[in-house]
Amino acid sequence: MFEAFFKDKLAPLTLRMALGLFCVYHGFSKIMADGGMSWYPGLAVGWQLFIAWGEFSAGLAILLGFHCRKAAALFLGLTIGTLLWWQGWNVFRLSLLSLEPTLLVLLLGVALLFQGAGELSLDGRAGGSGQETAKSGKKKAAA
């Protein structure tokens, strides 16, 4: 009973809180630089806006569990894209110590993408996390 509660409800919630707070914090700090238009002067304004507001909105969606898998995919695309933009092929020569925080956050995003928002989310309440659909399908097949 407790194992199912932790696995189905608290584990996805913990993943969402960790990744969502990270995204909201980093996105908000970029938005505070002139609305997201001047946090990295070497980058075009359109890309700065897209990255800043994309991180912030994906973080809010992840925190609420609203279209969580799509938000995690957006975050993964933004993070991998900006990492490759700034580092290029040099990313393969970086030390593991410098890549460790980025890899940890990327793995959080992948885990959330695979697992979904869980039952304690807006997706879970609406039946859109995929887990409830599978459970209700099993109940219908058994009946």
Q: Would you count the extended β strands for me? A: 0
Average residue pLDDT: 88
Low-pLDDT ranges: 129-143
Number of separate domains: 1
Shape: globular
H/E series: HHHHHH
Indicate the structural class: mainly alpha
CA radius of gyration? 18 Å
Helix share of residues? over 70%
Q: Quote the distance from N terminus to C terminus.
A: 23 Å
Main beta-sheet strand count, sense and barrel state: none
Can you count the helices? Answer: 6
Our estimate of the beta-strand percent is under 5%
Describe the protein in words.
With 143 residues, the chain is an all-alpha fold. The chain has one domain (2-142). It contains 6 helices and no strands. It has helices spanning 2-31, 45-64, 68-87, 96-115, 122-126, 131-142. Helix 1 (2-31) packs antiparallel against helix 2 (45-64), helix 1 packs across helix 4 (96-115) and helix 3 (68-87) packs antiparallel against helix 4. The longest helix has 30 residues, at 2-31. The protein starts with a helix and ends with a helix.
